[in-house]
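Thread: uridine-5'-diphosphate-glucuronic acid complex, take 2
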Amino acid sequence: MAHRGHNVTCVDIDEKKITMMQQGISPIYEQDLEELMYINEEKLGYTTDYKSVYKNADAIFIGVGTPEQPDGSANLSYIATVARQIAETVEKDCLVVVKSTVPVGTNDKVEQFIQDFLVNDVNVQVASNPEFLAQGTAVRDTLEAARIIIGTNSIKAENTLMAIYEPFGLPIVSVSRRSAEMIKYAANDFLALKISYMNDIANLCELVGADIEDVARGMGFDSRIGSKFLNAGIGYGGSCFPKDTKALDYLATLHGYELRTVKAAIDVNNDQKILLYKKACQRLITFNGLKVAVLGLTFKSGTDDLREAPSLDNVPLLLAQGADIYAYDPIGSENFRRRFPETSSEREVEYSKGSIHYVRSAEAALDGANVCFIFTEWGEIKAVMPEDYNRLMRTPLVYDGRNIYDVNEMRESGVEYYSIGRK
Ligand code: UGA
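Output below.
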């Protein structure tokens, strides 16, 4: 927003994050973000004092989390908190823009909620403006977005949002608030479905002797299918697809409808995440006392985010089997260590068996290992050559959840190699 000429003040309740940002440090790992913060320093402010910011704002964008609740529904308590703070502090007409992913109908409720708590005699409208950036490519996805979706219920709100996005020079799709809310879920769930479909086909490929990479390549040339998001693998993770598939399924159930396609995507993904672990269990008598190299912990490369990462499903299974894990991730190790500390004094709950160590290179993880699992497609992991597995590991047995290597090259290097959808 600042890069496109607007004056922006970022508000958060977390003082630590705000202090970091005031010093030009991004609290998350995201390529090019700090540079952009630096370039636009003059147009950017950071504060925990929301009152001073909300009272004079022309537009307030809400981008708080809407995490999954145990029943699959989205937790809207953070949205409600912010909406109430806005209602109690705005002193002039303003547009509240909901960027957070929220179930269809939430914008209507937010508008009513603000109305109910409004202190001053001002006009506050609410618009939906879902976000389509992906982690790791956030800056590029924002500045070069394929489209901007704006959902409004009045000409005034539509004009304000149009004016805000005009300097971006990107296609704008203007729809109703409910349609905008639905576009976000429908788009994410379609991509999740696309991945689960490819994972399902990959598993069948293995059984019938076809190669999923070739199949995906052949499919992708058809522009009706498109070549993106056809990568079979260890299942989708992250803060969005797992949560948004479950939330849409929940919304459908609330309305007495069964969303069978999305349910199927969720089911396939749950199985896919532990597919390689299960294969390894068939191959090995036990993990007890084995040195297990885990390469990659984050849900994808380019981010330090661990939410719904396949590593979180697999590491506890391996530990419970008594594995001695040596994990490497170029960015995500520190976050992972907080959940799975190395030393018992740091642990809230003791591992019943097994142990975990964090190392600074893929080579260190592989050194003397009996088996290796690849969970993330980091460049640093791709740089490990097939012969390195043979040279470094005690027994070169590799389970690759990201299809990083050529099957034949691995075999020729003497590696017993299992991947997804390829014999
Ligand atoms: C996703 C969407 O791609 C964004 O458009 C959306 O804005 C965002 O969610 C959101 O709702 O905020 P993100 O979760 O950051 O973005 O990451 P993706 O690149 O979409 O990857 C999600 C998961 O799918 C990862 O675990 C990735 O490894 C997996 N994936 C992706 C595959 O397994 N195969 C593919 O072909 C592509």
